[in-house]
Amino acid sequence: MTLQSPSTDLTSFEGKVAVVTGGSRGIGKAVCDELIRRGAKVVIGAISDKGREVAKQYNKEAGKKVAVFLRTDVSRYDDNKALFQLAENEFGGVDIAILNAATCDNADNLFSPLDDKLEERIFNVNAVGLIKSSKVAILHMAKRGGGSIVCTSSAAGFYSVPALIAYVATKHAVIGYVKSCTFLPEVCNVRVNAVCPSFADTTFMDNVKTIDGAPEPFYDFVDTVPTVPMSVIIDGVFKYLCDNTANGKTVMAYPTGIEVIEAPEWHYSLLTDDSLKAQDIYLKKAIPHSKQQLSRALERYEKEQKERPI
Ligand SMILES: NC(=O)c1ccc[n+]([C@@H]2O[C@H](COP(=O)([O-])OP(=O)(O)OC[C@H]3O[C@@H](n4cnc5c(N)ncnc54)[C@H](O)[C@@H]3O)[C@@H](O)[C@H]2O)c1
């Protein structure tokens, strides 16, 4: 089945369909506001039911259905599939995915209790959940002829924050994932990029606490650091949504504005004459190979949708 996209050119957002995880408040909600302002339709997936009210308000203001909400836990494939299928059922397909849902709870330090749940939950939402959302997003976008994914990582995806070790590791993981999407534009016309805000003025860190309740000196420091205006984060998101050439890129959002962070090139010691020749052959094979795998993945997904509709 092929769903026709009006266009994958995202210089205009009128009529485009965007799935936004974590769109019920904070940064995700600000991105939804801007998408709606530019004429897009939004499908909000979040763990908190507050997103229902947000969607209702957009519809009320527009005088027609421009938004829907589904309670979603991004750590579960079934929830992600239901969210993207809702976008297809309500608005005909998916052009944009803003993968923004994350938690900072259990972001504790090196000396927290040796409890499996502590690190597992934060990884399952912030890193594994984002990968699950994007794998589902890519299938829906591939069917439509292309799309653009922007992931919310963090300045913590590059910096050291000893008070938030597990959180920091999840945000580094997001950067690694985004960089690994190298061939996607050639395979299915989908682009994946990341925005990395520094501290923003949201309630994100309100629930972070040390397990034993002892005060964490880091938070006294955080209170002194200037926050990044929401408008700068929105600039970063729309920079990548609109730039048809950007893929696997990361942009920092600082209080002073956005700054692109370039990944290092492969080190010269890894690139011998032999490995360069082999790399050429690999690059020629990689795209047809990935196209074949995508086609099998789409068949599997469509069969599953027919046999076990969500
Ligand atoms: N606030 C900051 O200082 C800051 C800085 C850098 C990066 N970020 C990143 O920005 C993104 C948004 O954060 P925010 O500041 O708007 O926080 P927020 O707490 O206001 O919003 C988080 C959103 O994620 C949703 N969410 C949480 N767990 C979920 C799950 N399992 N499944 C689905 N949805 C889930 C929540 O319902 C909410 O809508 C996050 O990825 C965060 O890591 C925030």
From TrEMBL:
| SUPFAM superfamilies, per database record | NAD(P)-binding Rossmann-fold domains (SSF51735)
* Pfam families in the record: adh_short (PF00106)
- InterPro entries hit by this protein: NAD(P)-bd_dom_sf, SDR_fam
Domain of life, per the record? Eukaryota
Keywords for this entry? Oxidoreductase
The record's Gene3D superfamilies line, in alphabetical order, gives: NAD(P)-binding Rossmann-like Domain
Which PANTHER family did the record assign? Answer: 15-HYDROXYPROSTAGLANDIN DEHYDROGENASE [NAD(+)]
The family line of this record is: Belongs to the short-chain dehydrogenases/reductases (SDR) family.
How is this protein named in the record? Uncharacterized protein
